[in-house]
Write a structure and sequence with these properties.
Radius of gyration: 16 Å
Number of strands: 10
Shape: globular
Number of domains: 1
Order of helices and strands: EEEEHHEEEEHEHEHH
Oligomer: single chain
CATH architecture: 3-Layer(aba) Sandwich
Helix content: 10-25%
Number of helices: 6
Structural class: alpha+beta
Distance between the termini: 24 Å
Amino acid sequence: MNADRFLANHFLIAMPGLTDPNFHHTVTYLCEHDEEGAMGLVINRPIEMQLGDLLQHVGIRVEDDEVRSRPVFLGGPVQPERGFVLHEPLGDWDATMQVTDRIGVTASQDILAAIARGEGPERFLVALGYAGWGAGQLEEEMLANAWLSGPADPGILFETPVEARWEAAARHLGVDLGMLSGDAGHA
């Protein structure tokens, strides 16, 4: 597969007919995609836990009510005990995977401590778990019409209300999900 065929920094938008409960009506931000597989974070599935609860669980104290009340997302079904911070700008954290020149995903506690102190990245979301695909698996799912894909929009990623992200991501591609059939097929 050519490098320009890889989909890092793209949205995967679940087609209306995708019934897998892990991905029904989700938007996944692809952080990494190459010949070995893909890794992404679901950005529109908040869980019952707030960021303050997560920070307390890992021994980080937070005073700011806005930070404390932010949602935590279920990033995907793989390793749901593992935390990730998707953020802009990149910053200088212990374990950051650079996705673009501005966006990174960090899996170390130093970024959480900085967020709690009000010294974290300008825009971020915190997720537990991730979505992962083995070599060729995502490509097969796309051929089966499970997903729409297109370039990610940081505004949708960080600013659009959670409940509007699925439709907003599709609209960003010029697609009205209400006009799509839940049945897969090929012309």
